[in-house]
From TrEMBL:
It comes from the Eukaryota. The lineage of its organism: Eukaryota, Metazoa, Ecdysozoa, Arthropoda, Hexapoda. PANTHER family: PYRIDINE NUCLEOTIDE-DISULFIDE OXIDOREDUCTASE DOMAIN-CONTAINING (PTHR43429), PYRIDINE NUCLEOTIDE-DISULFIDE OXIDOREDUCTASE DOMAIN-CONTAINING PROTEIN 1 (PTHR43429:SF2). Belongs to the class-I pyridine nucleotide-disulfide oxidoreductase family. PYROXD1 subfamily. It comes from Psylliodes chrysocephalus. Residues 376-441 form the NADH-rubredoxin oxidoreductase C-terminal domain. This is Pyridine nucleotide-disulfide oxidoreductase domain-containing protein 1. It holds the Pfam family Pyr_redox_2. The keyword Oxidoreductase applies. Its cofactor is FAD. Residues 6-197, 241-346 form the FAD/NAD(P)-binding domain. Keywords: FAD, Flavoprotein, Oxidoreductase. GO terms for molecular function: oxidoreductase activity. The keyword Flavoprotein applies.
Length: 463
């Protein structure tokens, strides 16, 4: 067999790459090699602003995919080896397929806590799609420990009901991958549906990063020491989320005779009994195939790619979670393992391969100018733009916050009075403006704190 393009991986990066190739090179042979029979596709794609998109992920059967893309040949198999000298791949079932261009989109796997090797009660979770199925599986667990502080752990803590939950996080506030202590405070009531909502108060605050890092102090009375959050649930089995801050699991043991057979020991020495442990502590690049020449990898095993998504081996590209951006990146962009970026990289890798084939120069996609991600956390719309957590800025920046309890949380990150990043939670309608302010680096000093004054229509300023 042979093909002009072979794309490996049926995740968002691989599928978007194959679809984009099918669009630009409809006459060329394209093979998508997928280990799983379900193919992840993007649906309901909506452009919110120039850099922000919103979409859903849908898993479809390979037959459905083939119907939609007759010029992509889908092969259900696993890549075992790449002979980059003679330009062919070998699959697990010993198929040999020649390629001109190869794109590796093999993604990542959950990184479980080390004790998982000894206990089947420690579960990992692959994707948010599987969260609902996953929750059904653990339905009869009465006491659960969740480890990790990213989007997945947050989603689980929010969605699992009628179960006692112990959430173990190494940071001093929840959802640290995405948000700062202030937004975490905003989210806390979402874990507690029963709490009587206090009068919504709109507060506006301006901090130096110093104060912010000192955390609690500036944010009102000891919000982060409020460790126990009671959740709604069945009267008989109360659903509670108890957050254990700034700690990790140091030991796991099992006692089959106990009502809750698992016992974890935290680094603080505290012991917690439970039925299962969910490990949501991030992912690791998945590269379980061999190559003739060595691929250049990061120390975490990700495949290094240049600004054209090319690896160090000629004619081999990579995209999505398996790769690491090894170019001099734009000030307001950074890589984060997200669907958004898997899609952008997959599509851009396809354009680069097609450009390479046709000897056309391809300019780097605009999406790499600025980080932009739209998601949902604890039932709220969340938009993250630019250096939304002060990434790369050191300590020399200011933060402007406007928060209305239960309604919205807006954070602007400023350096030298220019907007560097923003967190927009709720229906703020500020995404377009924030994006423009970041991209154009407009001097905001004339407006002072009014930038977030809800009584002033800021957009009028910039008309
Ligand atoms: C639990 C969880 C929840 C998440 N939630 C969100 C979210 O809400 N929003 C968001 O933006 N991002 C989320 N992410 C991140 C997002 O899922 C990833 O960034 C994205 O799926 C990466 O896409 P990918 O195509 O690079 O890799 P993957 O989706 O991992 O796809 C890789 C594919 O390659 C296949 N493969 C691997 N090796 C081989 C081989 N040798 N031969 C053939 N096929 C192979 C795999 O089977 C897989 O189908 C979440 C991640 C996890 C783990
Ligand atoms: C990664 O970056 C280094 C330093 O710029 C460079 O020497 C190397 O060739 C790059 N590798 C790839 C695969 O782009």
């Amino acid at each position: 067999m042979e093909a002009v393009f072979i794309v490996v991986g049926g995740g968002i990066a691989g599928v978007t790459c194959a679809e984009t190739l099918a669009f630009f090179e409809p006459e060329k042979t394209i093979i998508l090699l997928s280990e799983s029979s379900l193919i992840k596709t993007v649906t309901n794609l909506l452009a919110i602003t120039r850099t922000l998109t919103k979409f859903d992920i849908k898993e479809v059967q390979s037959s459905e995919f083939s119907l939609k893309h007759p010029n992509v040949k889908l092969i259900h198999d696993t890549l075992a080896e790449v002979n980059d000298k003679e330009k062919y791949i070998i699959t697990k079932t010993n198929k040999i397929i020649k390629y001109e261009y190869l794109c590796l989109c093999t993604g990542a796997e959950p990184k479980l806590i080390p004790q998982s090797q000894d206990f089947e009660e420690i579960l990992g979770i692959r994707d948010t799609d599987s969260i609902d199925t996953f929750i059904k599986k653990i339905n009869n667990a009465k006491k659960i420990v969740i480890v990790g502080n990213g989007g997945i752990a947050s989603e689980l803590a929010y969605k699992i009901k009628n179960t006692e939950i112990h959430w173990v996080i190494k940071d001093r506030h929840i959802s640290a991958t995405f948000v700062d202590p202030g937004a975490a405070e905003f989210f806390l009531p979402s874990l507690n549906k029963d709490e009587i909502q206090k009068e919504p108060v709109s507060k506006r605050m301006r901090y130096q990063e110093e104060d912010f890092k000192k955390s609690g102090a500036a944010l009102g009375p000891d919000w982060y020491t409020n460790l126990i959050i009671r959740g709604a649930g069945d009267i008989n089995i109360p659903s509670t989320v108890k957050i254990h801050y700034e700690t990790e699991i140091s030991d796991v043991s099992r006692d089959k005779k106990s009502e809750h057979p698992m016992e974890i020991t935290l680094s603080t020495g505290e012991k917690i009994k439970c039925d299962i442990i969910i490990s949501a502590t991030g992912v690791m690049a998945k590269k379980l195939f061999k190559t003739k020449s060595d691929l250049e990898l990061t120390n975490l095993g990700e495949i290094q790619v240049n600004e054209h998504m090319e690896t160090n081996i000629p004619y081999i590209y990579a995209a999505g979670d398996v790769c690491s951006a090894n170019w001099s990146i734009a000030k307001h962009w950074f890589q984060m393992k997200l669907w958004t970026q898997a899609r952008q990289m997959g599509s851009y890798a396809a354009k680069c391969m097609a450009g390479h084939l046709n000897k056309e120069e391809v300019l780097q996609d605009f999406c790499f100018e600025m980080f932009a991600h739209s998601t949902k956390l604890f039932g709220h719309k969340v938009i993250l733009l630019g250096l939304f957590n002060g990434q790369k800025l050191g300590t020399n920046y200011e933060i402007l916050i406007r928060m209305t309890k239960g309604h919205e949380y807006i954070k602007f990150v400023l350096e030298n009075n220019k907007l560097q990043g923003a967190v927009l939670i709720g229906d703020t309608d500020l995404e377009e403006m924030a994006e423009n302010l970041i991209l154009n680096q407009i001097d905001l000093s004339p407006y002072g704190d009014d930038i977030l004054n809800p009584d002033i229509d800021i957009e009028d300023y910039f008309d």
